[in-house]
Amino acid sequence: MEFLNQTTQFVISGLATGAIYALIGLSFAIIFNSTGIINFAQGEFVMLGGVLTIFSINTLQLPLLAAVVLAVAGTTVVGVVFERAAIRPLKNATPLSLIIITIGASILIRGLVMLFWGKDTQALPAFSGNDPINFAGATLLPQHLWIFGVTLLVIAGSRLFFHHTISGKAMRACSFNRRAANLVGISVGRMVLLSFVISSALGSLAGVIIAPLTMTSYDVGVMLGLKGFCAAIMGGMGSGFGTVLGGLILGVLESLGAGLISSGYKDAIAFFILLLILFIRPQGLFKKGETERV
Amino acid sequence: MKKLITTALVSFSLCCLSTAALAAAPIKIGALFAVTGPASFLGEPERNTAQMVVDEINKAGGVKGRKLELITYDTGGDATKAVQLANKLIKNDNVVAIIGPSTTGDTMAVIPVVEKANIPMVACAAGIKITDPVKKWVFKTAQNDTLAVAKIYEHLKKEKKNKVALLTVSDSFGSSGREQLKSQAAKFGMQIVSDDTYGPKDTDMTAQLTKIRGSQAQAVICWGTNPGPAVIARNAKQLGLALPLYMSHGVSSKKFIELAGEAAEGVRLPSGKVLVADRLPKGDKQKGALLAYIKDYQNHFKAEGDHFGGHAWDAVMLLKGAIERGGDTPSGIRNQLEATRGFAGIGGVFNYAAGDHAGLTKDAFVLVEVRKKDWVLVK
């Protein structure tokens, strides 16, 4: 019984962490699909979401909801500026140099945040209290429910957007074949910008809802970004269900590994899975292999 | 015309400055702190404090009529850089003594440099390796981990608890603590029933705590620096973990209470006396120094002076005392540092000796508990 209770707790904790990875993974995938680059500044969007919310609450004295909106909007502006200033001017750059640019941007953003808001870790109050909720012998916090809720909403929203709106379909078209998309009259540049808007908004939203649990500081984005990247890789860089499942699996495995095997190997487990998938199934766990016609 | 006057003024003031400098050249003291990088929580208050104390000494007329000049470099917590900067301090800046570095890693790397150059160094790092075995030119002000561990075990023994669970961070601070916790357990009759670690950037430790909940442990000892321990305190509350939670002196600042919020209530940790300065009994030797330091730091930086800045305070004041008694040569300073007895600073009452360059006993620590968002002394 005790073992069962423990395992339930491991799984629930893992799912909660996994939902965060999934959200971040989704925002990786969105940019990848429309531009073919992996945006390593994604973790910084997550960090900005948390830091800006705390700044809005503490310094600007805004209520929580307004602070969240402002933080998401602020991060989106950063994302747009980033795309306009660093990605768009390099029309014929290879994906590799673009990826290196995103790494540079992430270091820049981290540095600026450190200069403006210092190096201290800060905590955001929980959205609806800290009283633990009992669930099948395990406990979770109200904030976890927020995370699950937002993740579900985002999945539903992105499904609707990518399959049932013109812009969403246009973005998917870009991901399949940019030139063809261009030829049928889709403005690829605008789609790229839009992908940055959605992705930075999503990343910062993830940052906001996890800030009460994990706390936030200028360097919190590095590890979260990497884990989100793992999730996206597991899902084969698709912007759908695969990534979400990838995130959840990663979270649960980490938690079970830490609880049942050894806590020292927690991160090792995540990165071992990442390597394994890159070696064995580079197209992701849930995607059929794509054949390319020459 | 205007230009002429400006030139005249500038050259006049330059003259004044140079004559003043000729009158009594300042005594140069070097400082190496990890102001940026992962150990910045140590280096920043240390740099602030050292500069503040030196400024004040100078304002009060310096040491025997001579000003002190503090030359501070930032190691970024990088041992290679620390060695380069130590060489620069010794060879280019010609300092007579060095304060810092902030971390054990930096300090161990710098030790061969100062030993070779015969320059006294007062380290602000806690690792026991720094002064054990004793090195001729190396002293330190930060309390050994050993003393903090002893304080916790002593208390547990008094409460008749002997089964503990360890949860330590996987960096140098945590692994050094873990080593001490394990090696001293037998001495206090403690049995370690669970030994877990977490990563310095981890955001959820419920898995480890769930495991601990299932073990025989009567108390949890967590060794880490913010924000990890705050996450652990919150996770423990979420899980309804009924075991008493002990932390290390690595979180002995208000920041921990702020981060952990309500979950900090009841957490116990060994700390330097600076946290509870106003609650110390009147007879306490350190009380005067502590209260003065806290007030000073508050005035200068609008922040609470902490334990870590205190290491730099002690280092500067120890050097000042040594210079007053022994002059401004490196060997004179070293000999007088070693002869320091009964110096009541921030970290404790220092008694250096030829065989002891750490100078503190476990009385340097007090056990404190968080109650109503503040620290109280545990008797």
Written description of the protein model:
The complex is a heterodimer of chains A (294) and B (379). Chain A is mainly α. Helices cover 73% and strands 2% of the residues of chain A. Chain A has one domain: ABC transporter involved in vitamin B12 uptake, BtuC (Orthogonal Bundle). Chain A has a two-stranded antiparallel ribbon. In chain A, helix 6 packs across helix 8 (188-214) and helix 9 (221-234) packs across helix 10. In chain A, 49% of the residues are buried. By secondary structure, chain B is of the alpha/beta class. In chain B, strands 2-1-3-4-5 form a five-stranded parallel β-sheet, sandwiched between helices. A four-stranded parallel β-sheet of chain B has the order 7-6-8-9, sandwiched between helices. A three-stranded antiparallel β-sheet of chain B has the order 10-13-14, with helices on one face. The longest helix of chain B has 22 residues, at 2-23. Chains A and B meet through helix 1, helix 8, helix 9 and helix 10 of A and helix 2, strand 7, helix 7, helix 8 and helix 9 of B.
Summarize the structure.
The complex is a heterodimer of chains A (294) and B (379). Chain A is mainly alpha-helical.
Low-confidence stretches of chain B: 15-22
What is the CATH topology of chain A? Answer: ABC transporter involved in vitamin B12 uptake, BtuC
Portion in strands of chain B? 15-25%
Strand order of the largest sheet of chain B: 2-1-3-4-5
H/E element string of chain A?
HHHHEEHHHHHHH
The major β-sheet of chain B equals:
5 strands, parallel
Examine the secondary-structure arrangement and name the CATH architecture of the largest domain in chain B. 3-Layer(aba) Sandwich
The first-level CATH class of chain A is given as Mainly Alpha
The CATH superfamily of the largest domain in chain B appears as: Response regulator
Can you give the mean pLDDT of chain A?
A: 87
- The oligomeric state is heterodimer
Morphology call of chain B: globular
What percentage of residues of chain A falls in helices of 4 or more residues?
over 70%
User: Could you tell me the number of beta strands of chain B?
Assistant: 14
The appropriate CATH architecture of chain A is Orthogonal Bundle
